[in-house]
Amino acid sequence: MGEDMLMNAVQSQAPIFSISVEYARDFACKNLRIDDAPLSLAHTRDKLVMGRLTEQASLLFADLIPEIRHQLDHPLVGIVAIDVPQVSEDATVDAIVGSLIAVSLTQAIMPSLPDRENKTPFSIFTASKDNSKKLDRVGIRGLSPTDVLDFHSDGSIVDGKLSVPDHISIFNVFINYHDRGNFYWVPTSTISSFSHIIEKVGLSQEYCFSLTPAVYDNGQSDVKVVDRRARAAIFTRALDGSITTFMNGTFEGRAGTSVDQAEDVTAEIKTAISTNPIRYSIPQESRRLILLNNANGFHARDIFENPMEEYPVTRTYLRSASIAGKVVGQIVED
């Protein structure tokens, strides 16, 4: 991340909780087997299985979940991390068990949209040197671990409608880089100039965006890239009076006007976020679950550097988006 993004920022470490080894092993022993065989991540697409795991996570982590929700709902915080301990000497088994614990805890806090392809309550992303080269070949930037990811809020698409999910979770199964940097978070409520920007940009005023492409890697020589455009309001007022901000993709202009006459109204917003004097940071680590109040803040991350040469896969993570969210626009069919 560039030095300009860190300028004048007072960085505070976000709340980080840890699941004890005892609790993690207890959850795994009692819940992560079916018909005497270990559960896989694919089993989470079964609603009965996922419902049982969610219920058991709610019971076992009954003391932790209220603390997490308190931090997520706090207007001056809105982000929390939870570390999942190692429970098995077998690296593959341990990765699956850790992921299932993280997914179960996530669903107990924020029931999530199913992945379009896998129908699991999360999407799984795996980065390697090979697929990073594929993305470079098709001109896609910002999706590789070594690309800068600037401040933004995440979106979701359901039945042609564009929404800002209330919550997002990211679980780093593993990060095979020596220099992993930080994950950053800026709560909207701490940005003093936002009321001025909202007045300038307009509530519920629609603008056109080219969304961040969806990329599907089939393991062959190329990747499938799905481009989408949307008409969306940057600022909308929710029923509770809070302001939801959509900040994702490439700004194209005000809806109904010529693109070549467009003034990028998002530039001032991005500057206000990146230079905000208050910012939370979380070191990016393997087996760390990050939950954030996506509708009320913006996140970014450092690039990953100095890969561990002995591993062909550089990063695997799970991402979930809450079912609950605010509709801010619609997908535009070209």
Description of the molecule:
The chain has 334 residues and is an alpha+beta fold. It has one domain (3-332): Clavaminate synthase-like (Double-stranded beta-helix), CATH 3.60.130.10. 25% of the residues lie in helices and 35% in strands. It has eight helices and 25 strands. The strands form seven sheets. A six-stranded mixed beta sheet has the order 2-5-21-10-24-6. A six-stranded antiparallel beta sheet has the order 8-9-25-16-13-19, with no helix packed on it. It has a five-stranded mixed beta sheet with strand order 1-20-12-22-7, covered by helices on one side.
Topology-level CATH name: Double-stranded beta-helix
Oligomer: single chain
Q: What strand order characterises the main sheet? A: 2-5-21-10-24-6
Helix content: 25-40%
C-alpha geometry: globular
- Tell me the strand percentage band: 25-35%
CATH architecture term: 4-Layer Sandwich
Instruction: Assign the CATH superfamily.
Output: Clavaminate synthase-like
Distance between the termini: 34 Å
Mean pLDDT: 88
Regions with pLDDT < 50 over 5+ consecutive residues?
Answer: 1-8, 137-143
The number of strands is 25
Structural class: alpha+beta
Radius of gyration: 20 Å
